[in-house]
């Protein structure tokens, strides 16, 4: 079958989110064809280049989210009226707040109104060639102002001033840029030709999939290992969000927003996520923590299928098969240094551990990736020096600190496997965590673990490690001391953890799960297409019976197009035209590139 893989800020770019997972998925499913539709987040990401793609990737189409030139489309009076109607309906729903209880009739009505407005704007963009200019126009700001002042709007929204309205309009223009892409074609170059759209994340990546479903009936699969909406709640709700036009560039500093702006932005992203969950044939969270967020945001429990992320177990095989080689009196922490990892609590806990077991060492492996992380690392180094002064064995010996901060990549510790191999107990001390990748790596290495109860930790551990409350140094210390004093228990927990990780968190199980989901979705929701001959007439018996099974089929010399009313039921189409008329023009203002990666054999 032919899969349209939709990404935002990741694959096939060298830098970004979920790039490694997408690459493993594509390479593992070599029996399928993949068309990659990628949205980039920054100019820096595009300049870094793309990864080498396997032969099953037949096409790559890219477009930027961080910038868009004015398409130059001049709308007539009727088009302006359509835009004002649909845009006004969309922002009026936002002014009523974020989605509430998905089971209420009012919430269902609001979801219908938001969806109708969104698809109305998409149809207008398809007919006229783009909406970049319209979304930046004074008509958009005035429609937003009318919605904020209308009866029924939230009190917070009614207080929006002109700068607030301009900020919200700029953010909506950026978020709705995928509507103006020329990806929504019924030929062999657009999303109308795929059998399934797979969005590698929620948010902007799912928006082209929603339009492919609306225009062509292509089923949509949404995968979220980190719920994008949660990021908006945490970022926007705490007083900061990416500046409009900055995309999701990590270098962009958070910009504080007024309460009215925060309310409208959270409402938009909440409505978009709810629409993606509502229209998707299947939603695959990466863990129970993400699943709870999705259910709270309106996802139907019947559509949810948890698929844990897959990791390469072979790189940790050598360490996992030799657990006795670890230093029995060394504790290890591995990760990215930042305040959310709560190394301060770990250092305070180690004071009690060192008091109970004087010969114990703590090795911290990792570095900082931002200015905040660098400052936090410096603070932790100073705290360690204060809590554990260098102790010398005699007056002529050099003192040694039981806490060391090291980076992976040196001669002594060239890789992650060697870092986990340095100790017998691995610690996770975070106060905020999604899916704990480092914890799975420690399990694959056969190490006993002590973790804080955050995110998906309990789901990952499953009884094969010790779990303590976050921000509780005493509980953390007691758990570590218990394992240091009981080597037999460490060995049993490490063996059980490795067995669990090999069963649930490998690349092989991840690929097998998605292969089954692909077949299930396409068998339940096949894209119905009509095959036309050279004269544009339908060929009723050109599609074999096997076409209703999972796979991609077309009659010899025929062209597969989405099913529309049969030509014999209306006026015969002109020679060479698709059923139902030719596709409308599309604006090239936002779409950046179309690259044919490998020639596709056979008729489409």
Which keywords apply here?
single chain; 604 residues; alpha/beta; 7-stranded mixed sheet; 6-stranded parallel sheet; globular; disordered C terminus
Overall residue-averaged pLDDT value: 84
Spans where pLDDT lies below 50 across 5 or more residues: 236-255, 553-571, 573-589, 598-604
Count the strands? 15
User: How much of the sequence is in beta strands?
Assistant: 5-15%
CA-based shape? globular
Class inferred from helices and paired strands: alpha/beta
Helix content: 40-55%
In DSSP terms (H or I, runs of 4 or more residues), the helix count works out at 21
Main sheet, how many strands, which sense, barrel?
Answer: 7 strands, mixed
Work out the radius of gyration: 27 Å
- For the termini, the CA-CA separation is 11 Å
Main-sheet strand order equals 6-5-4-1-2-3-15
Chart the SSEs and their pairings.
Elements: E1 2-8, H1 19-28, E2 33-40, H2 43-47, E3 57-64, H3 77-94, H4 105-128, H5 132-135, H6 138-149, H7 155-158, H8 162-175, E4 196-199, H9 206-216, E5 220-224, H10 228-237, H11 259-279, E6 282-285, H12 288-296, H13 317-320, E7 330-334, H14 343-356, E8 361-365, H15 371-387, E9 403-406, H16 416-421, E10 425-428, H17 437-444, E11 448-452, H18 457-461, E12 466-468, H19 473-484, H20 487-504, H21 507-524, E13 529-532, E14 559-562, E15 593-596
Parallel strand pairs: 1-2, 1-4, 2-3, 4-5, 5-6, 7-8, 7-10, 8-9, 10-11, 11-12
Antiparallel strand pairs: 3-15, 13-14
Helix pairs in contact: 3-4, 3-6, 6-8, 8-11, 9-11, 10-11, 14-15, 14-19, 17-20
